[in-house]
Amino acid sequence: MKFGVVVFPGSNCDDDMMYVLGEVMGQEVVKIWHKDYSLDHFDVGDCIILPGGFSYGDYLRAGAIARFAHIMPAVMDFARSGGYVWGICNGFQILCEAGLLPGVLLRNSNQQFICKNTWLRVETTQSPITASLMPGQVLRIPIAHAEGRYHADEATLQTLADNDQILFKYCTPDGQLSDEANPNGAAMHIAGICNSTRNVFGMMPHPERASEEALGNTDGRGLFESLLACVAHEATV
Amino acid sequence: MTSTAEPQVTVQTARNLGLTEEEFSRIIEIMGRVPNFNELSVFSVMWSEHCSYKNSILWLKTLPRNGGRLLVGAGEENAGLVDIGNGLACAFKIESHNHPSAIEPYQGAATGVGGIHRDIFTMGARPIAALNSLRFGNPDLKHTRRLVRGVVHGIGDYGNCFGVPTVGGEVYFNDCYNQNILVNAMSVGIVRVGETVSAAAGPPGNPVFIVGSATGKDGIHGATFASADLTENSAEDLPSVQVGDPFQEKLLLEATLEAIQTGAIVGMQDMGAAGITCSTSEMSARSGVGMRIDLDKAPTRQANMKPWEILLSESQERMLIVAHKGMEHLLMEVFDKWDLECACIGETTDTGRLEYYQHGEKVADVPAEALVLGGGAPVYKREYSRPAYMDKIAQFKPSKISMPKDWVAAARQVFASPNVVSKRWVYEQYDSMVRTNTLTTNRYSDAAVVRIKGTSKALALTTDCNSAYVYADPYVGAMIAVAEAARNIVCTGGEPVAITNCLNFGNPYNPEVYYQFVYAIKGMGEACRKFNTPVTGGNVSFYNQSVFQDCTEPVYPTPTIGMLGILDDASRQMTFDFKAEGDVIYMVGTPCGDINSSEYLRIVHGIHYSPAPHFDLDEEYAIQQAVRALITQQIIRSAHDVSEGGLFVTLMECAMAGSKGFAVETDANFRKDAYLFGESQSRVVVSVVPAKEDELVNYLNSHNVPFSRLGEVCGQHIQIDGENFGALDAWQTVYEHWLSDKMAE
User: I want to staple B449 with a disulfide (CB 3.0 to 4.6 A). Which of A220, B165, B386, B439 is the partner?
Assistant: First the structure.
């Protein structure tokens, strides 16, 4: 399995992702420049990461310009062909803008940038990045965003729930849902979702910031391990 | 060469540009003629306080400016450079953006952050951490809250987008900053030794490039603006405030670091104060060369800009680069990749003069050397005299201060001081974790800790200055600022290595203000020599005072210290949270017997004039050595220095961080209010497992270090002298919510 991290102008979590995947998880990982047109050297079973940051300065609207980057048609083709695409923070915003995931991410309800640890409840294990986790397990993973309030119309939210596409919800440290534990006011406390074919994932919290003992938090590591285990399993069957 | 379209230059023109009559005469002498308006503008910004340090440099030179780990000393380059081992060096610097932030808090603060990061990456270092030191007025004022909101938003938006974590800092509130807030921003970067880029132009005959953003009319005369008193009319100077674009800066950072790798760069300097003027003159003067610059070739944001507008523009996110002739294409390829402007605007010459052209005509011609600090820029020796308010301070009699009748109520008052409560509302708006090096996200330490990937090391970083102490006694107060910074680093398990300073004072032509400046420098120098932490550079910000209705109010003298420390083994980071019930709490240092200049004295008794708290440099040094040993020998489990709010607040912070209560006893030999809330220096609260208590006591006894056993970690309540002060979580709620509630008013 191979990872590719797309670098948009203004991406700033690209190196963090490279470090966690390469140094911490020991995986093969390369950077992909936004001006490239092709992902020919990636196969289904590989994973393209859209990292956090402020692509194009988040001007106009977070992710709104990045979705027109040269590389994006290739990312969309890759996703449609079943390849894994994982957007984190700004990457999630881009995936929503590109229509690879439903919904949008609005300004946080307090109108401020928020950077802090949050607690996430694993809502489903029916996805490659949560398959090895326990349903209802609580993970401490930080957020850092100004536009992270997930929003979609009622029908879409219902579909997400019915199809088990909600991966994570913000919760209290003991797993309860509450307004206080919902840092940005997200609809249904949603912190992360996947698409209906379960190969495209988007989440606002940053697992790459919580994957090392040295940083005092390894709760994010389970997501990477889960994806690797899933892909390894698929390769053997 | 005289351009008839420009104003006729007279001594009045010079005065309008902030120059004195004597300075104007001197310029005529240097030029051998009356300068034209463009040239006069160039002199006015280069000889402004901000660029020339004309009123401070004599005293700055008395600070220790070299030492063991220093690779580049103060003033030699854009920032100092410290050897941190493993073939790496650390470039770090703090700078003020006070006046712009007072007028337009969002852009003022944002561009302050942008400017200091550029100072670091122009040397070839990648910024890995940011800190800031902020001073605001009374938080009960709507005006103050507006400024707080704007400044925090500005710092956040710029730093977050730029992708460098804001890992630490400080926020103080005091009425003296009501009109004139202080915004000091610090950047810390890492570079491979030998891969730094100099801010020198090099030999003649090489092409000169301007890269990054186009030049607009923003920030013209910003350096002059920063060198005058703030007045009621200062808002009319709004065009003097620059506008920041962090996205451009992020691209500029990546492109610049990539361009350095091509080997095409001779020298580089960022454009901050005084824009093209400052960068061309300083780079030329460093190499004893000149430059011929064609202003028509500089990309501009609007048509028909006048020569002096282009020369003085402080448009952000720009750099001046001198490239090796014949390698220009390598430079241009990189900037093209990052979609940034890269325009050749001239070349270096052997004339030693800066010759600026527009429309084929020479519009200014000045000797580079005459413009710069250390060259022709004026140097002044200012008068100073002991401030009259010091008499009021000398009259303070602690015996007249009555003890509180209700200790819990007094503790609550101190605890709810805006200078004590959690600054969570502020720091959660900053991305403190990007780059995944911040070791203080999930661990509580007195200084921020940032690891260096690929090594076992980490940097410990802090900014410190209690300006009330400096006001009370500039000499002692400045020593305390250095000592506290060092103490914070020591309590984190680090070794203090070097400092950068941001010297915020009032008008230097006021002898009482200058007295504060002189004595603060003396105290700072003495403390830096003691801790072996040389000054690598920084910035002087005078004129921090406001004239309102004929009454001049200088801010408290605020010499902010930004200190760099090193942890050789990042995994040995010391934290301050109480670890386990039953652990024994000790205080290393002499118990406090004075209430001088404490939050307690101000908040509970309303007294603003008292001496600086007890401080002795040798005693401080001994305490720090002891704490370092206790950490190195792994005897203690937590360490936290005693600062604002005294011992009580220190204990509470350890308790809240560890979610554990405590029971302690005071010492009847000391005033109880002083013991609990006094702010005498050189004290550190430590906790130890009972099994190691003897080891702790033996070590401190054998090294003649004073200490006291305070009590132990227990339960979820606070107990002092057997009195129940209540549940920890009730205190914590106040601590966590005070500022956010206040900001919502």
Answer: B439
